[in-house]
Amino acid sequence: MFSLRTRADRVRQMLELTRTDACVVKSFENRRYLTDLATSAGLVVVTKMGNCYVIVDERYEEVARKELAWQGFIIKVVLNKNNYMDVMNDIVQSDKISTMLIESDAISHEEYLDFERAMYAKVMPLKTQLAKIRANKDLREIENIKTAQRISEKTFDEILEYIKPGMTEKQVEAKIVQRLLENGSDLDKFHICCVSGANSSMVHGRATDKIIEVGDPILLDFGATYNGYKSSMSRTICVGKPSEEFEKVYTVVKNANMLGAKYIKSGIAGKTADEEIRGYIEQMGYGDYFCHASAHGIGLNYNEQPSISPSSVDTLGVGNVIAMEPGIYLKGKFGVRIGDLYYIGEKYTENITRAPKDLIIL
């Protein structure tokens, strides 16, 4: 039976490697990873002694006790933010903590100094260790991501029936949000790129009042969220017959996508995978028009470790979920991006995305 304690155990292994006694987690994503609770405030403290403390205010006491106490989490309740340090020092004393890691990139410099001054233990910054732990997804995380992806694909199919010439990009974007929610997505800050015609050459373009016309390509990049976990898919479609130039570029991007799938596997350096994908696009004469990373990890955030880019220092491993999304963007003309999700398993890499890659003409 799945237990969140196994995730705390992974943090505890990190404590052994760093020779520290405790880890203090504050960021929303990492607190959710360790507790599965979506709370707006609080701390999670994992100690080498074997305890996992969840510190919340009164708003979240009931749900924390209901969802976590039976799994062995120790719930501590604060009355106001000034009580956090007192509770923390109680933990320091009870678990004999002499050194603790603080998630330094989730707090301000002033807050970090407050911890240093108040704690009865030596405080040290925690940098990328938790991001590396979260890059290796467990089976429950994989199932959440797959469910989110199914929601995205159902939404994509329904949007194809909805798009008509004369609509604006914003109208299509609004329908995507509506259908994502109706199909089961969490209410979330949605990641949506819905741009048409010349606007599609803007890599991270936002929907505008531009009217979709016959012959326009439409670049769609969006994802659902399920139990906090994200999905992502990119497809470029065309309303009416596309130009020969568009069809040529589309074929190059599609081939780059399929080539990239061969390099999404355990043991491959992120930089090497990017070089192979980027190298093909350069070989086809479009190297100057591919201006972002080939791929990246995805999970509780849309962009997580590992990185697959020219500057990547990561190596792909079992448990990674990768959003692989090559693209070509011709300024003032159009852009094409085709993106799929891949899960790197023990024996093989699975393409989680079921949507077709062939050009769809509405």
Give me the secondary-structure topology:
Elements (H helix, E strand, L loop, with lengths): L4 H14 L3 E4 L2 H8 L7 E5 L4 E6 L3 H8 L5 E5 L5 H11 L4 E5 L5 H10 L3 E5 L2 H7 L3 H24 L6 H14 L9 E5 L20 E6 L2 E2 L2 E2 L2 E6 L5 H18 L8 H14 L11 E3 L6 E5 L12 E4 L2 E4 L3 E4 L2 E5 L4 E3 L11
Parallel strand pairs: 1-5, 3-4, 5-6
Antiparallel strand pairs: 1-2, 2-3, 7-8, 8-11, 9-10, 12-13, 12-14, 14-17, 15-16, 17-18
Helix pairs in contact: 7-8, 9-10
Question: Would you mind describing this structure in some detail?
Answer:
The chain is elongated and about 70 Å long. Strand 5, helix 5 (109-118) and strand 6 form a beta-alpha-beta unit. The chain contains ten helices and 18 strands. It has 362 residues and is α+β, with helices and mostly antiparallel strands. The strands form five sheets. A six-stranded mixed sheet has the order 4-3-2-1-5-6, with helices on both faces. Strands 13-12-14-17-18 form a five-stranded antiparallel sheet. The relative contact order is 0.11.
According to DSSP, the number of beta strands is 18
Low-confidence blocks of residues:
none
Order of helices and strands: HEHEEHEHEHEHHHEEEEEHHEEEEEEE
Shape: elongated
Query: What is the strand arrangement across the widest sheet?
Result: 4-3-2-1-5-6
Radius of gyration: 23 Å
How many helices? The count is 10
The percentage helix is 25-40%
Distance between the termini: 47 Å
If you average the pLDDT, what whole number results? 95
Main sheet: strands, sense, barrel: 6 strands, mixed
